[in-house]
TrEMBL record:
Record protein name field: Putative surface protein with fasciclin (FAS1) repeats
Domain FAS1: 46-183
Organism: Psychrobacter fozii
Superkingdom of this protein's organism: Bacteria
Cellular compartments per GO CC: extracellular space
Organismal lineage: Bacteria, Pseudomonadati, Pseudomonadota, Gammaproteobacteria, Moraxellales
UniProt keyword list: Signal
InterPro entries documented for this protein: Adhesion/Biosynth-related, FAS1_dom_sf, FAS1_domain
Signal peptide region: 1-21
Keyword Signal: yes
Length: 186
């Protein structure tokens, strides 16, 4: 009888320990550190290109678009060398007005959204900094051509020009340049 009580107490103790361990288990967050929103104290040079965009309120529509297209994770690749032409929120508002689309319509059309966003990305052997830019054509990630004009503007395949507002925002996996228009491929 004494042995049975000891066994029962031992089993109870193991059950309690097991249940306590279950309470400490939380579902793991599938979002890895590379795509998490940066902290305000994190230096831009310690962020990837997605985190750079997330850290600036003027890129909130760009960040929404990247998430809607499902490309935040690929753009967070630590081994990539991206050059991003990042349109501001005002640029997104302007293109929505220009095209007659709502944000919901654009973001729901994943193939179109992905093509437009890919038209803002160069994935090369090295990031392209302002000092490296020369007039001419550039092959974009979307497989479309973007032209750099002699005045240093970007001209899309529709003849629309974008000004570069700020250059050389360094990231761990590339560089970000701020532009005033959403570029549209044909």
């Amino acid at each position: 009888m004494k042995l049975t009580k000891i066994a029962a107490i031992g089993t109870l103790a193991l059950s309690v320990a097991g249940l306590s361990a279950c309470n400490n288990m939380t579902p793991s967050d599938s979002t890895d550190a590379a795509t998490q929103t940066p902290t305000s104290s994190q230096a831009m040079s310690d962020m990837n290109v997605v985190q750079v965009a997330q850290s600036n309120a003027d890129f909130s529509l760009l960040v929404e678009a990247v998430q809607a297209a499902g490309i935040a994770e690929p753009l967070s690749n630590p081994n990539a060398n991206f050059t991003i032409f990042a349109p501001t929120n005002e640029a997104f508002a302007q293109v929505l007005q220009e095209t007659g689309m709502t944000k919901a319509q654009l973001f729901a059309n994943k193939p179109l959204l992905t093509k437009i966003l890919g038209y803002h990305v160069i994935n090369g052997a090295a990031p392209v900094y302002a000092a490296d830019v020369k007039p001419g054509n550039i092959a974009m990630l979307s497989k479309d051509t973007l032209m750099v004009t002699a005045k240093g503007q970007l001209q899309d395949e529709n003849g629309r020009t974008a000004n570069i507002l700020k250059t050389d925002i360094a990231a761990t996996n590339g560089v970000v340049h701020v532009i005033d228009k959403v570029l549209l491929p044909k």
